[in-house]
Amino acid sequence: MRAIEITQAGGPEALQLRDRSEPKPAAGQIVIRVAYAGVNRPDALQRAGLYAPPKGASDIPGLEASGEVVAVGPGVSRWQKGDKVCALLPGGGYAEYAATHADHALPVPDGLPMREAACLPETCFTVWSNLFDRAQLTTGERLLVHGGSSGIGTTAIQMANAFGARIFVTAGSPEKCAACEKLGAERAIDYRTDDFVKLMRDEGGADVILDMVGGDYIPRNIKALNDDGRLVQIAFLQGPMAEINFAQIMLRRLTVTGSTLRPQSDLAKARIAQSLEVKVWPLITAGKLRPVIDSTFALADAANAHARMESSQHIGKIVLKVA
């Protein structure tokens, strides 16, 4: 099969098209003929040598894909050859075939094209598990999402809006702010010109903050939270180190938590998939949540897809067309 290899740790040019052996399904796994693969920040971290695949995972990048089931391993009863699925992958999405745990796959929602279905797993698993499982976001609460125009951000806006939260976001341009408000954000804050801490305090403080920036945003997030607020950290574009005042956490009963998806157990990911199918997939079929796609690249053009992502000019998801 054709697949994208990381030839060495480095920039986008390290991604090269190669011939690789097709994967075979182990017990509990399925193999998907990939139609489209989502492009995500962890892929770029892996390419740069900063995010090694878990033990036993493919070294080919790619954490989500849509396609058709072509092989079923022992012990798998739900999926059959020919089923159309989108799936969270341990790796291997930038290829014509990819193997994954059967319980990490979900049916392609009715009426949704394969290109859009490929954008669902990584973002939906991340947003649901962090905002609703960890932070327990509820109707009427004020949510602040940093990076509102990203794939995670655009998904978080729509999902939180569907569950009745009030949504505020930060983004880096008037165009990105407008896109976020069109999706359902009550207020989009241009972080280049406005102080999100002051604006959120004027609103009464954020009940939940979803942050992928880190760095000096961390102490600012603490200030922006309402009493009993929850800060959920999912990435560190500006680094993981910060100095914070823990007295504020104690006095105001704040919760600081976070997670990364890839290292979690197969069982944990399966449980998230079950919740998504019950709680979120109906929103997609009802048209209340739809992936925002910035651009599509051919598989062989994965290097340019990464360059586009790292330019931070995109709004929504970037995908690779494989089949």
UniProtKB/TrEMBL annotation:
Keywords: NADP, Oxidoreductase. GO terms for molecular function: NADPH binding; oxidoreductase activity, acting on NAD(P)H. It comes from the Bacteria. CDD domains: p53_inducible_oxidoreductase. SMART domains: PKS_ER. SUPFAM superfamilies: GroES-like, NAD(P)-binding Rossmann-fold domains. This is NAD(P)H-quinone oxidoreductase. NCBIfam families: quinone_pig3 (TIGR02824). The lineage of its organism: Bacteria, Pseudomonadati, Pseudomonadota, Alphaproteobacteria, Rhodobacterales. PANTHER family: OS02G0805600 PROTEIN, QUINONE OXIDOREDUCTASE PIG3-RELATED. The keyword NAD does not apply. Residues 10-320 form the Enoyl reductase (ER) domain.
